[in-house]
C-alpha cells in the first residue's frame, strides 16, 4: 500500500490568530476515518509534522494548523501551487458506531478540526451531536461557522469570556445542561483530563504526542493504557475512555 | 547486470541493505507498505530478558539533520518475542533475520542468546553492548575492552549462530574495544550505535527529552560513522556491519568503501518508511554510474 503522496497546496489562509486553513490536493485513498492525521515533510527539517485532518474527499484534504514552531511557521509562508511530501491515512481515527443517539463533541483550540469530519459522519449515521468548542480568547476562535452550517447546536467557550460562555469547555457543559450519552473529544491534555472527570459517559479521546515516525515504528510516542502499551500514532491517537491512564 | 550480493559470516544477502534495530519493529508495519523480502535482512527491535516499557515521554527531539531518541529499549521481553512476535514476523519476512539482544547483566545477555539460539529464522545475533551494567554502577558494557569482551565470551558459549557485537561510539577508543570483541570470539562487529546527545527547550529552559539525554542519529552522524567503520575495519579481520546516518545508495557504497560488508539504515526509515526499498531500487543504477560490477569487491576499497 502506498501512503506517501505528493500533495499540492490549493489554499493557505489565516483562520484565526496564528491558525491557518490549508487545502491540499492529492490522493486520499489511505484515509478511512475522521480523526486520522497526515505527516508532512518540510525541507531542511528532519522529522515530519503530524497534523490532523479536518475533512477529506477523493480530491484532497483540509487541515488547520497553529503556528507553534519552526515547521508550522514555514508552512504558513507557503503558497498555492507548492507541493508537500506527506504520509497519509495515519492513526486509528474515531469510530462513529460506538456512540449513542446524542454524542457530545468537544474540541479545544486546534483540537477542533478533526471533530468537523466526525460531526458530519455522526449526522450521516443519524445521530444528533452537540458541539462544544473551547478557545483562549475571541481572536483564537475558528471553525464555529462551519460547524453551525451543518445544522448542529454549537456552544463556544473562551477562557476570558470574550466570546461565548466564560470559562472552559467543562463550564460550558455545566451551564448549558446539554443531554448526551457519549463523548468524542480532541484538545490539549488538561482539557481532556477535565472532561474525563466532568462526564460519566463512555467516549473516545484523541491525544497529541511528540512523535518520531508517526506510523508505529519507533515507539517514540508509546503510552501506558489499562490494556498495555499503545503507540499514540498507530494504536491511537484516539483512545477509549475506559483504557486511559493519566 | 550488477551483483549486489554480499556474504556475512556464511550468510549470503541479496543486497547489503538492512533496517537497523529499533527503526523497523518486527517488520509488520513496513510489510503493509512494501514487500520487505527485498531487504538483505533486518535487525529486529532490541530485546531484553524482561518486558520493558522504556523511558518516560517525550522520547523524541529533533536536531539539524537528525533526531534524538530515548525510547529506552521498549520491548515485550525475549519469551514474548519468541512466542508472539517471531511467528508473526515469519509470515511477512522469509529470509534469515538479525536478532538484536540487549542486557543489563552478563547473565541476561547469555539467557537471551541461549533462547534465541533455538530459533531457525534467526541468521545472526547482534549483541548491543551500549546498555548500562546494573552490577557495575550503570557503566555501559561497551565502554571498556574488558567488559565488551566478557559479554562476547559468555554469549559465545551458548550459541553457534554468528555473533556481531554492536558498539557504542561514545567511547575514547572504539578500535581497542572492537579488537577485544574479535579476540573474545565475535564473528563480526556492528557499528555505530547512536551518539549521546541533548536538546534544551528555550522557553521552558529544560531538556526536551524527559530522560534529559538520548541517542542522536540521522544523516548528521554519517561522517562519524564512516570514520569509525574505517578505523575498525582496518584493525579487525572479521566482517563489519556499518551504520549511522545512512540514507541513500551512495551512502551505502561509501560505508562499504570504508570497510562495511553490510549496511544498516536507521533513522531514515522513520522519515521515509520506503527508505530501504528506495535505496535497494537505486543501488544498481548508482553502481553502474560508478563502474561497480559487484558490491562484494568494493568492501574496504578506501583503505
Structural account:
The complex is a heterodimer of chains A (246) and B (303). Chain A has 246 residues and is of the alpha/beta class. Chain A has 2 domains: 87 residues, Elongation Factor Tu (Ef-tu), domain 3; 111 residues, Nucleotide-binding domain of ferredoxin-NADP reductase (FNR) module (Rossmann fold), CATH 3.40.50. Helix content of chain A is 17%, strand content 36%. Chain A is built from 5 helices and 15 strands. Chain A has a 7-stranded mixed sheet, with helices on both faces. Chain A has a 6-stranded antiparallel beta barrel with strand order 1-2-5-4-3-6. In chain A, strands 13-14 form a two-stranded antiparallel sheet. In chain A, α3 links the parallel β8 and β9. Chain A is globular and about 50 Å long. The mean pLDDT of chain A is 96. Chain B is an alpha/beta fold. Chain B has one domain: Aldolase class I (TIM Barrel, Alpha-Beta Barrel). Chain B contains 9 helices and 13 strands. In chain B, the strands form 3 sheets. In chain B, strands 3-13-12-9-8-7-6 form a 7-stranded parallel sheet, with helices on one face. Chain B starts with 5 loop residues before the first strand and ends in a 14-residue tail after the last helix. The model of chain B has no long low-confidence stretch (mean pLDDT 96). Classes of the chains: A alpha/beta (246), B alpha/beta (303). The interface between A and B is medium-sized, with 27 and 34 residues.
Shape, principal axes of CA atoms of chain A: globular
Round the mean pLDDT of chain B to the nearest integer and report it.
Answer: 96
Q: Report the oligomer.
A: heterodimer
The most extensive contact between chains is: A-B, 27 and 34 residues
By DSSP, the count of extended strands of chain B is 13
The largest sheet of chain A has its strands arranged as 10-9-8-7-11-12-15
Domain count of chain A: 2
Q: Give the radius of gyration of chain A.
A: 17 Å
Mean pLDDT, all residues of chain A: 96
Number of strands of chain A: 15
Q: Major sheet of chain A, described briefly?
A: 7 strands, mixed
End-to-end separation of chain B: 26 Å
Strand content range of chain A = 35-45%
**For this structure, what is the CATH homologous superfamily of the largest domain in chain A?**
Nucleotide-binding domain of ferredoxin-NADP reductase (FNR) module
Spatial strand sequence of the major β-sheet of chain B: 3-13-12-9-8-7-6
**SS field, number of helical segments of chain A:** 5
Amino acid at each position: 500500500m502506498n501512503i506517501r503522496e505528493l500533495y499540492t497546496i490549493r489554499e493557505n489562509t489565516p483562520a484565526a490568530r496564528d491558525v491557518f486553513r490549508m487545502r491540499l490536493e492529492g490522493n486520499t485513498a489511505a484515509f478511512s476515518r475522521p480523526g486520522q492525521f497526515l505527516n508532512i515533510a518540510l525541507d531542511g527539517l528532519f522529522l515530519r509534522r503530524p497534523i490532523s485532518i479536518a475533512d477529506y474527499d477523493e480530491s484532497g484534504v483540509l487541515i488547520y494548523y497553529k503556528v507553534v514552531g519552526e515547521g508550522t511557521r514555514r508552512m504558513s509562508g507557503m503558497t498555492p501551487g507548492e507541493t508537500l511530501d506527506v504520509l497519509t491515512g495515519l492513526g486509528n481515527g474515531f469510530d462513529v458506531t460506538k456512540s449513542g443517539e446524542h454524542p457530545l463533541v468537544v474540541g479545544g483550540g486546534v483540537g477542533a478540526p478533526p471533530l468537523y469530519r466526525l460531526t458530519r459522519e455522526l449526522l450521516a449515521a443519524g445521530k444528533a451531536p452537540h458541539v462544544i468548542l473551547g478557545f483562549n480568547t475571541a481572536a483564537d476562535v475558528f471553525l464555529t461557522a462551519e460547524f453551525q452550517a451543518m445544522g448542529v447546536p454549537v456552544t463556544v467557550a473562551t477562557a476570558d469570556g470574550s466570546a461565548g460562555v466564560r470559562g472552559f469547555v467543562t463550564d460550558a457543559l455545566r451551564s448549558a445542561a446539554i443531554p448526551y450519552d457519549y463523548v468524542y473529544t480532541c484538545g490539549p491534555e488538561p482539557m481532556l483530563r477535565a472532561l474525563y472527570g466532568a462526564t460519566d459517559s463512555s467516549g473516545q479521546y484523541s491525544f497529541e504526542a511528540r512523535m518520531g515516525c508517526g506510523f508505529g515504528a519507533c515507539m517514540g510516542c508509546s503510552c501506558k493504557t489499562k490494556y498495555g502499551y499503545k503507540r499514540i500514532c498507530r494504536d491511537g491517537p484516539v483512545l477509549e475512555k475506559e483504557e486511559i491512564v493519566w | 547486470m550488477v551483483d549486489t550480493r554480499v556474504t556475512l559470516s556464511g550468510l549470503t544477502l541479496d543486497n547489503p541493505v538492512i533496517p537497523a534495530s529499533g527503526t523497523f519493529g518486527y517488520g509488520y508495519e513496513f510489510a503493509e507498505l512494501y514487500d520487505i523480502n527485498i531487504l538483505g535482512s533486518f535487525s529486529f527491535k532490541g530485546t531484553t530478558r524482561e518486558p520493558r516499557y522504556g523511558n518516560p515521554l517525550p522520547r523524541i527531539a529533533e536536531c539539524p539533520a537528525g533526531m534524538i531518541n530515548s525510547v529506552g529499549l521498549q520491548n515485550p521481553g525475549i519469551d514474548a518475542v519468541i512466542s508472539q512476535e517471531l511467528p508473526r514476523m515469519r509470515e511477512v519476512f522469509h529470509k534469515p533475520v538479525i536478532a538484536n539482544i540487549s542486557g543489563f547483566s552478563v547473565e541476561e545477555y547469555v539467557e537471551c542468546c541461549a533462547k534465541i539460539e533455538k530459533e531457525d529464522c534467526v541468521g545472526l545475533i547482534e549483541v548491543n553492548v551500549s546498555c548500562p551494567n546494573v552490577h557495575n554502577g550503570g557503566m555501559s558494557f561497551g565502554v571498556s575492552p574488558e567488559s565488551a569482551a566478557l559479554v562476547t565470551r559468555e554469549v559465545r558459549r551458548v550459541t553457534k549462530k554468528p555473533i556481531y557485537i554492536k558498539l557504542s561510539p561514545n567511547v575514547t577508543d572504539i578500535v581497542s574495544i572492537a579488537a577485544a570483541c574479535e579476540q573474545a570470539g565475535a564473528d563480526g562487529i556492528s557499528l555505530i550505535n547512536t551518539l549521546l546527545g541533548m536538546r534544551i527547550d528555550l522557553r521552558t529552559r529544560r531538556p526536551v527529552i524527559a530522560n534529559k539525554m538520548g541517542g542522536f542519529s540521522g544523516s548528521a552522524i554519517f561522517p562519524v560513522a564512516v570514520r569509525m567503520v574505517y578505523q575498525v575495519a582496518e584493525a579487525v579481520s572479521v566482517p563489519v556491519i556499518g551504520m549511522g546516518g545512512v540514507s541513500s545508495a551512495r551512502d551505502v557504497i561509501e560505508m562499504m568503501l570504508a570497510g562495511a560488508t553490510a549496511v544498516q539504515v536507521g533513522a531514515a526509515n522513520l522519515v521515509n518508511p520506503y527508505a530501504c526499498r528506495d535505496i535497494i531500487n537505486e543501488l544498481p543504477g548508482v553502481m553502474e554510474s560508478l563502474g561497480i560490477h559487484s558490491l562484494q569487491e568494493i568492501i574496504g576499497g578506501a583503505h
